[in-house]
Amino acid sequence: MIGLLLLLLPLLDFIFVFTAAQNRPPYTPTESILINCGASSDDASQDGRRWNGDAQSKFCPFNSQTSPLSEASQQGHSVDRVPYMTARIIHSKLTCTFPVLPGPKFVRLYFYPDTYSGLSTSASFFTVTANNYTLLSNFSAYLAVSAKIQPVPYVFKEFIVTVWDNQELKLTFTPSPSSFAFINGVEIVSLPNYLYTKDMDNRYTFVYSDSNPFFYFDNSTSLETVYRLNVGGGLVGNINDTGMFRTWFDDSKYIFGATGLAHEWRDDVTINYTKDTPAYTAPATVYTTKRSMGAEPSVNLKYNLTWRFPVDSGFSYLVRLHFCETEESITDTNQWLFFIFINNMTAEAEADVFHWGRGRDIPVYKDYVIQVPKESPINQDLWLSLHPNNHSNPKYADAILNGLEIFKLNKSDGNLAGPNPEVPAPPEQHPSLGRRTKSKGSSETIVIVGAVIGAFAFAVVVFSFFCVYRRKAKAKDTSSSATIALSLPTDLCRKFTMAEIRASTRNFDDQNIIGSGGFGTVYKGYIESGSIPAAIKRLASSSKQGIREFHTEIQMLSKLRHVHLVSLIGYCNDQDEMILVYEYMPHGTLQDHLYKTMSPPLPWKQRLEICIGAARGLHYLHTGSNQSVIHRDVKSSNILLDRNWVAKVSDFGLSKTGPAGEDQTHVSTVVRGSFGYLDPEYYRRQQLTEKSDVYSFGVVLLEVLCSRPPVISNLPKEEVILVEWARKYYQRGALDQIIDPQLKGDITLVSLNKFGEIADSCVRDVAIERPTMGDVTWSLEFALQLHETAEKNVSARDDVSESQKLINTDDDEQCTISCGPMSYSRSTASTGERSTSNYDADKK
Ligand SMILES: *[C@@H]1O[C@H](CO)[C@@H](O)[C@H](O)[C@H]1NC(C)=O
Ligand SMILES: *[C@@H]1O[C@H](CO)[C@@H](O)[C@H](O)[C@H]1NC(C)=O
Ligand SMILES: *[C@@H]1O[C@H](CO)[C@@H](O)[C@H](O)[C@H]1NC(C)=O
Ligand SMILES: *[C@@H]1O[C@H](CO)[C@@H](O)[C@H](O)[C@H]1NC(C)=O
Ligand SMILES: *[C@@H]1O[C@H](CO)[C@@H](O)[C@H](O)[C@H]1NC(C)=O
Ligand SMILES: *[C@@H]1O[C@H](CO)[C@@H](O)[C@H](O)[C@H]1NC(C)=O
Ligand SMILES: *[C@@H]1O[C@H](CO)[C@@H](O)[C@H](O)[C@H]1NC(C)=O
Ligand SMILES: *[C@@H]1O[C@H](CO)[C@@H](O)[C@H](O)[C@H]1NC(C)=O
Ligand SMILES: *[C@@H]1O[C@H](CO)[C@@H](O)[C@H](O)[C@H]1NC(C)=O
């Protein structure tokens, strides 16, 4: 039955896509060309669109000698087969000619830098031009992918090029000297004439201090899309765009500092499009969802809501901001005014969305051009900040943003290409700790440098110090992390004075304590003159080890920024104190919501979303920065939940340090494990890999499923250890007997089975049998998808097949002993809050 359902799933997806497409989008492109390069026949991509194979391409003169078709050597988990799994390898200059109508076109180029017929694309550098514009120059898709904050295996680039009358669109691929080019997919889609470019007599606001307030460009300028975000909402996939197949990403990972308030859901508002903002401008979901500063005007007046966007230096950028006033309390102009700063310059002093739209629910967008000067760093951040204006009604001191697009404009010579990013990460990995390679214990050197330092209250905690390090290919890179830099990165996070810390915690008042452990005490405090809550961790000792941990935590945390990692606001090291200031997590730890708690049980979907978030955070730790970071203490009490229930991994990297010299190939790190979570292989063989985190995470998954701690010593022997106990039930196919009884009627059987399979694979005794965190993330997302599909089918139809039914056993005997407290009843109101489901695969 379940097998059948699994077979049907892709079909269900397809039907869904099909019906969604029935709602005719506001814009129908006159041209839409999709070429799946290297494919011999036509095929559909996941979004249901049909791509043409290019074996007998009418656009490109491919020839099997100079441009063979080729298949990728492996399919990464998030990699769609179409168009990414096949490619054209291009050995000499090649021009594809598209006979299209005059007008602006989106040109989207898709790259999956894998190995093709034994040819590694890490050696591929090439230039792409479209008519007289240089889109990419000496471009390396491999470097582009490797440089991402959150690594994704593929990249697509989007450009807007206007094709003139009596002109064709010519795309030319030119390999760099002694290199080759490759391409997986090409998409050409037309767009409305004046969507992004204007006539010369229309002008753009030019944000540039003391200079000409206007900037002009017309359709002779080509653009590259660098960001397109549905601010405060989630991902809007290309098929849900207004007909141009643009993808709108989630904005949260670009936020700097306080995240404001995401208004992710609104279904009682109908967006009233206008002549100035036609319905194709942006999908209605972009305008209904938004991010505001927060509910407390006095707090809002004290901070800036800020985003930072890495961009190439030396270009001008078009920044398009989308707004829509949807609050019923706003009834007139001048009620709600705010500043818009771009790169710290005032782009708008009295933004008044109601006034701009001339009413509620009317969308508007504002365009600004900003020059990012050519300075030494090839990359700079483009800053966007919002701040309430004092002239607004004090009741409404707030600011909003619904959507954002940032485009790079070509330089006067028609060039759009920036340099390749500098990727400090090594192209090769140390064989013992590589992401995909198996851990071969014998070849791995482990240096033990430490000793036991403490214990936590509720479980025996094993602390040991081990050193593990992934060798870097370039000595240059090694040296950058070689020494424990004692200068702290004041540019990356804020330094607080002791007086500020004392004021914020009422002089470390006991009533402010929100946690404690071997490391010290955590207080809730209010920083920025009492306006912003923060978690303030005061380290206990000023031992030599403590100092090092303190420094490295700051160094690491200021480098590692991810929506699923708790972020560091600042630190204080006055008066021999070591204090770390983190963002405050209103919903506490995941453990707080599973057992030993009075809070209402979490619905299954939310549990899945929390697990996905935490898995993404760990995946980022393992693979996201140039050095693999192993958490070493993954447990439900180290997974924190923010006000939108987004999971954030905390307490990581406390003791990670770089190697002391160039030829030393190991990093000293403190290895900690909590009893019940500890990887048995690591314990036995004392070899630490990312897979130890995977094991601990598997234990967390079981906790989430059963709502009980990993160890309960006063139970019958076979039930003491959660992993052992659950494994027995799993092997009998009886996992449903030990799940949290509160999940009954909520959890779907398909998702339970998938979830059980994931948890079981994570807690395998042998590390190499465990999946990577990337695999785990993907599988959990799949479990969520299974759950949502099954639920939809249950609610949509009466004749539910057995396999889709929600589990509803009456047999809770099994659980009454072991599955956490059940004295409270299930809250059916699922609080209306959806947790942010961030789309990490940044396809930008
Ligand atoms: C470019 O813009 C001009 C007006 O500025 C317009 O007359 C012309 O038709 C446009 N060309 C194309 C190909 O869209
Ligand atoms: C584009 O380049 C071609 C030569 O490659 C040249 O003939 C043509 O005038 C150029 N067009 C523009 C608009 O600069
Ligand atoms: C292309 O880029 C690579 C890496 O950024 C660089 O090493 C190489 O010299 C560049 N080649 C050319 C022709 O600019
Ligand atoms: C498109 O929108 C529908 C309905 O909101 C949603 O269920 C689906 O996941 C979306 N698809 C993509 C690819 O964003
Ligand atoms: C939409 O906005 C216009 C003004 O731009 C207004 O006249 C019209 O009544 C609005 N329609 C709805 C349904 O609110
Ligand atoms: C904007 O100001 C912040 C400090 O307030 C600074 O760190 C940043 O570099 C500035 N950004 C630009 C683009 O000048
Ligand atoms: C907000 O940003 C602007 C521009 O960078 C800056 O002048 C101002 O001081 C900031 N305000 C706060 C409260 O940080
Ligand atoms: C805003 O108004 C308050 C009180 O009216 C004043 O104290 C504060 O300095 C003002 N801030 C700015 C940025 O003008
Ligand atoms: C883009 O390139 C075209 C053609 O070279 C040029 O006419 C135009 O001025 C450039 N745009 C900008 C903003 O420099």
Please tell me about this protein's structure:
Residues 1-21 form the signal peptide. Residues 824-844 have a biased composition (Polar residues). The chain is an alpha+beta fold and 844 residues long. The protein folds into four domains: 32-190, Sandwich (Jelly Rolls); 204-409, Jelly Rolls; 454-583, Phosphorylase Kinase, domain 1, CATH 3.30.200; 665-839, Transferase(Phosphotransferase), domain 1. It is 21% helix and 25% strand. The strands form nine sheets. Strands 1, 2, 3, 7, 12, 15, 16, 17, 18, 19, 24, 27 and 30 form a 13-stranded mixed beta sheet that branches. Strand 34 (513-517) and strand 35 form a beta hairpin. Helix 11 runs antiparallel to helix 13, helix 11 packs antiparallel against helix 16 (773-796) and helix 13 (690-706) packs antiparallel against helix 15 (749-762). The relative contact order is 0.09. One 2-acetamido-2-deoxy-beta-D-glucopyranose binds at residues 125, 138, 176-177, 420.
What distinguishing features does this structure have?
ATP-binding; 844 residues; alpha+beta; Jelly Rolls; globular; transferase; Ser/Thr_kinase_AS; binds 2-acetamido-2-deoxy-beta-D-glucopyranose; kinase; 25% strand; disordered C terminus; disordered N terminus; 4 domains; Phosphorylase Kinase, domain 1
Contiguous low-pLDDT stretches (5 residues minimum) are: 1-22, 425-491, 653-671, 797-805, 809-844
The number of domains: 4
Determine Rg (CA atoms, Å).
27 Å
Shape: globular
| CATH H level, superfamily name of the largest domain | Galactose-binding lectin
**How far apart are the first and last residues' alpha carbons, in Å?**
39 Å
* Helix run count: 17
CATH-level-2 architecture of the largest domain:
Sandwich
Fraction of helical residues: 10-25%
Q: Biggest β-sheet: count, sense, barrel? A: 13 strands, mixed
Bound molecules: 2-acetamido-2-deoxy-beta-D-glucopyranose
Structural class call reads: alpha+beta
CATH class call of the largest domain: Mainly Beta
Number of strands: 41
Q: What is the mean pLDDT?
A: 78
CATH topology value of the largest domain:
Jelly Rolls
* Beta-strand content bin: 25-35%
